[in-house]
Design brief:
alpha/beta, about 25% helix, binds pyridoxal-5'-phosphate
Length: about 375
């Protein structure tokens, strides 16, 4: 492990270095925990902790005091379970698919119950294994994605026997528009969840994702569940990002050239040099998570200088215009910044017509991952 925070680029046999700053991750956890106190703070570590490594991220957050971790799929819970102490709870947001219940019970994984069918299956499993099983109950408060519908909540309340042998420890719902503070859907969802929660007196409530935390205290409930903000992404659109950056991506130059006016560059010849142009080809492409939609739009940076992508993003490389740099500034192997001090995830996402979440979760597997 390299403790240096500058020049993370050492390995030349890889297509780049993805540096993950676990210290910044820890600081983001502490900031969010302070923000939501006295509510507790969980961590959403689905999709391999948004591509950063679920095991490394979860173990670091456990050190910070995090005891609740959310994944999307049961398989992710299985993979994470043995890396965390038993007093860390792992919740499965998508719930269990039929057939996984007994394994989940044996591992002590906590499913979200998203339907009457899942409640019945978990209750039957509890009977079979002969003990009470923990679960979280997810209700749909307006997103129409996962969780019991209002009708199903009524059905459950009319048939309390359905939930026999299940110890429900949290009432969960999810906000559809949390990153848009002015969106009236947020207040509507909060009101809907409050109405449902009156039927479950005393049951802890969890509503806020990263954006929800910044909507204010009434959204915090007993347990907040951020993902992107822990990883340095902006929790609220179009506002200053209060989180520390966690990710840096540097990719080496693998060839430079100068082309004369009229030369076409890259697949499809979509870019034609207007003047004599100096170019550098760098060693990552769409197979490494640099979206093809950055073709002719995105950029990389070198010592603060923006280097626009010339032509299309290829599978394994991109070509950038380096005419703005002094001649000889870039050698073979020189790392350029793809994500870092000058280019945030949000900037890259805007150029690619997507969101920071998609950029982060798609960063490929050919980089050397270096934990700082
Ligand atoms: C992914 C997810 C989160 C975390 O969302 P962020 O916007 O990354 O903070 C929280 N809750 C649920 C149900 C999710 O699916």
């Amino acid at each position: 492990m390299n403790s240096s925070t500058d020049n993370v680029m050492l390995a030349t046999d890889r297509c780049g270095v993805l540096a993950i700053d676990l210290g910044a991750l820890g600081e983001n956890y502490r900031r969010l925990a302070k923000n939501v106190a006295p509510a507790a703070l969980a961590a959403v570590v689905k999709a391999d902790a948004y591509g950063l490594g679920a095991v490394q991220v979860s173990q670091r957050l456990y050190q910070e005091g995090c005891r609740r971790f959310f994944v999307a799929h049961f398989i992710e819970a299985v993979q994470l379970r043995s890396s965390l102490p038993q007093n860390a709870a792992i919740y499965v947001l998508n719930g269990l698919q039929p057939g996984n219940e007994e394994r989940a019970a044996a591992l002590g994984v906590v499913p979200l119950l998203n339907s009457i069918g899942q409640i019945e299956a978990w209750s039957q499993t509890a009977c079979r294994v002969g003990r009470t099983l923990e679960a979280a109950l997810q209700v749909d408060s307006g997103m129409s994605r996962l969780g019991l519908s209002p009708d199903e909540v009524c059905e459950l309340l009319a048939n309390p026997g359905l939930i026999l042998n299940i110890e429900v420890t949290t009432l969960v719902s999810h906000l559809a528009c949390a990153d848009e503070p002015a969106n009236p859907a947020n207040a509507r969802q909060l009101a809907a969840l409050r109405a449902i929660s009156t039927a479950f007196p005393g049951l802890p409530v969890s509503l806020a994702n990263s954006g929800g935390i910044f909507l204010g205290g009434e959204f915090h409930g007993s347990l907040a569940r951020p993902g992107i903000a822990l990883y340095g992404g902006a929790p609220v659109a179009d506002r200053d990002n209060p989180m520390l950056p966690v990710v840096r991506l540097e990719v080496p130059v693998i060839q430079t050239r100068t082309v004369s006016p009229g030369t076409q560059i890259g697949y499809g010849g979509t870019f034609t040099a207007k003047t004599a142009t100096r170019l550098a080809t760098i060693a990552a492409g769409y197979a490494d998570g640099l979206p093809r939609s950055l073709s002719g739009r995105g950029a990389v940076y070198f010592e603060g200088q923006r280097l626009p992508i010339a032509g299309r993003v290829s599978m394994d490389s991109i070509t950038v215009d380096i005419s703005a740099l002094p001649e000889g500034a870039l050698d073979l192997g020189t790392p350029v910044e793809v994500v870092g001090k000058h280019q945030t995830l949000e900037m890259m996402a805007a150029d690619a017509d997507t969101i920071s979440y998609e950029i982060l979760t798609r960063l490929g597997h050919r980089y050397q991952r270096r934990y700082i």
